[in-house]
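Assemble and predict.
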Amino acid sequence: MLGEYYGKLLSNEVPDRFAKLLNELERAEPGKMEATETKAED
Amino acid sequence: MSEAANFKTDLLAAIPSLRAFAVSLAQNSDRADDLVQETLVKAWDKQASFQPGTNLKAWLFTILRNEFYSQMRKRGREVQDSDGAMTARLAIHPSQEGKLDLEDFRKALQVLPEDQREAIILIGASGFSYEEAAEICGCAVGTIKSRVSRARVRLQEILQISGEADYGPDAIATQVMGSPAS
């Protein structure tokens, strides 16, 4: 049952905000990124 | 592909696992996603300290876990229910005809103290070894084993799985732990 519960969590759709955040981090200078709302435009 | 691009690809691949672990800890999807976001930002900033070839997933889980407890401290959360007082007052009755469903199980997990919940998730669901889970939680391997054992007993109590007479010894462990998810 634990595996089933966790499997459901794993299969949840990943929000686009994380891909946008990583794109923004990749463009930004290392260490300069603030942990705030992502403002990526893509 | 550049080193940064490779790292980004690896982070993207880890997001489903991070979100699942975050939801298990925070019990709230919005808060879980905020935790994942903080984890990604911190991981990106600290990427120079990550040793390629070592366990990225364990490294990310460590960051996320630290962030979770850091936020809990900032929020001034009261001492968790480690002595089981709350659990003793709460039992979950199977939803229908004696059959446990995932909602029953989710509620039962929510009642566990955080240290036990994270231990059983790391070992029973996330696929980490006891050694890796101990590293993630910053404690001894024996402590993780003890927490997993207590979590299993507590889940059985909460879910009112009455014992071997009803389910058989293997069925009890299967109901509570299931098989590890990848």
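Chain B touches chain A at residues 4-5, 8, 11-12, 15-17, 19-20, 23-24, 33, 36-38, 40-42, 44-45, 47-48, 100, 102, 105-106, 109, 120-121, 124-126, 174-181 (CB under 8 Å).
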